[in-house]
Amino acid sequence: AAIDGDPNTFWSTTDPIPELTVSFPQPVAMSGLVLMNRQNDRNHAGDIRAYKLEFSDDGQHWRELAHGEIASTWNPQTVKFPQTVTARHLKLTRLAGFGADKSTALAELAVIYAGPKLTDTSGDKLEYRRVRSSTPDIDEANPPAPSGN
Question: Which secondary-structure segment (H or E) carries 86?
Fold first, then answer.
């Protein structure tokens, strides 16, 4: 759910050492990540404060790429890597959260691609559709009026 492109879904865990590993079919060149915290909890349950990022070519031997802190916010946050890396596996580890909450949640994780230009051979257009959250106070102020028959 963290890599599905839908901020209304989320990945979560209560593991003592929470890790999210993304494996790619082929090595991917990347210069950073965009992270988006869980969007449907007004108390920001599971928000990551401190993190560590690692990369690997084989999924067994990991090298630290970056570490730092992000804010507890609804907004997407960009994490720039110190250098561009090419790898088949990327691991995000939560080192600390906010407050006493021991869960970890993430709505979206997107790679900032740094490889050669990709060509789209699918012919499909990407279409963004707004979906209302389960919490009305975080939806947009002027939602569209419902259509009637």
Answer: strand 77-97
